[in-house]
User: Fold this.
Amino acid sequence: ILGEEDHLGDMDFKVAGTEDGITALQMDIKIEGVSAEILTKALAQAREGRLHILGIMNRTIAQPRSDISDFAPKVISIKVPTEKIGLIIGPGGKNIKGMSEKTGSTINIDDDGMVTIYNHLKEGAEKAQRMVEGLIEEAVVGKTYTGPVKRIMDFGAFVEILPGKEGLVHISKLAATRVENVSDVVKEGQVLTVTVTEIDHMGRINLATKEALEANPGLLTERSERRPPRRDGDRPRSGGFRDGSRGGYDGPRGGSDRRPGGYSDRPPRPPRRDG
Assistant:
């Protein structure tokens, strides 16, 4: 349509529809009226033309594809709990900016918890979706995860099982046999498959490798419940594991040396001197 029909003509008449009938009409007219005969003829011509075009379309693709092309722009919307919004954004927007940069996606989050992800490629959008969902996911006792070894200590290795969430594989849970040195079994950056054996009352995540669980299945059943909160008057527990071993750390406490999961890798404080 060039506009000449508006400038030089008496009328333009547009008809849209399906094989079953008309869905929309639009008409511009400069004369006093249109006879029923002309209108009937126009609608019949429109129907003939519409069915011809629909026939060509159906021969090309008879029904919508189950999914759009991997190379088509992708928009994904997911709803997250409002209390997780701060976690997704991160301090100073660190988390949301990091996910955007790593995936090439535009990520927006509303106050009601609606997260909208846009990417010009499907792969990037879905990667950003997995990162957002992983960030708010909670570890589950008995579930198996795969992640990199982030830190190695004398008493075990810390594995990132979810984005920003680390768990400890104690040296006694690294292999089916006794391990003398953690570094003999794993290295930083190595990807491990581990199972959550316990989440204690402080939210600390304890893990075990597949080999350790196969050698001692009781590791999971013995540690499958959260430790009850300490009652008033109970003697405070020192840092360590339920089997009595110190594990090489002195328990969670305040300060800049806090590690993910509540662990601290600084050495124990020296005993207090008199005075």
